[in-house]
Amino acid sequence: MGQALAVGDRVEVVLLKEDREKIRYTADVLADDGTHLVVRAPWAGDAARDFGFVRFEQGDVFTEHFWRDRWYAVKEVRDVTGVRKGWYCDVTRPASLHGGVLRVTDLDLDLWVPDGDDPPLRLDEDEFLASGLTERDPEAAAQAWRALDELADLAATRFADLG
């Protein structure tokens, strides 16, 4: 177990892609046991973003689960009225926390799980294959594929147990 934050603390979340900063935002800590950190934050984008299967926009609230020992993050998305849109899941390297900054490295593979009975959508497999990670770091690439499969298994229960 690592450093744990207290409920009510604020943490700076930094999402990295190949060691460059993709986005940075501040989130409120809901829970942290030293391994599993749960935070809540509003949509951090400057403008609405329509993915075709879901639209993220101002007023959306993300409850995000990060682990220091798992290769993914799970983000529950609700609209401004509290209606759940679904879960956006990122395959990542395990999160690291240093001095109130949570760093998460995105590995391109994603899973969208809509609220309701529609099946999950595996996303960005082509980006992942084009990234060269399989050649540069075969073990990390294997972990990433395993993480995507694990997320698909968790999606079957709509993330009833994220512990």
Automatic annotation (TrEMBL):
<feature type="domain" description="DUF402">
    <location>
        <begin position="49"/>
        <end position="156"/>
    </location>
</feature>
<dbReference type="InterPro" id="IPR035930">
    <property type="entry name" value="FomD-like_sf"/>
</dbReference>
<protein>
    <recommendedName>
        <fullName>DUF402 domain-containing protein</fullName>
    </recommendedName>
</protein>
<dbReference type="InterPro" id="IPR050212">
    <property type="entry name" value="Ntdp-like"/>
</dbReference>
<dbReference type="InterPro" id="IPR007295">
    <property type="entry name" value="DUF402"/>
</dbReference>
<dbReference type="Pfam" id="PF04167">
    <property type="entry name" value="DUF402"/>
</dbReference>
<keyword id="KW-0378">Hydrolase</keyword>
<dbReference type="GO" id="GO:0016787">
    <property type="term" value="F:hydrolase activity"/>
</dbReference>
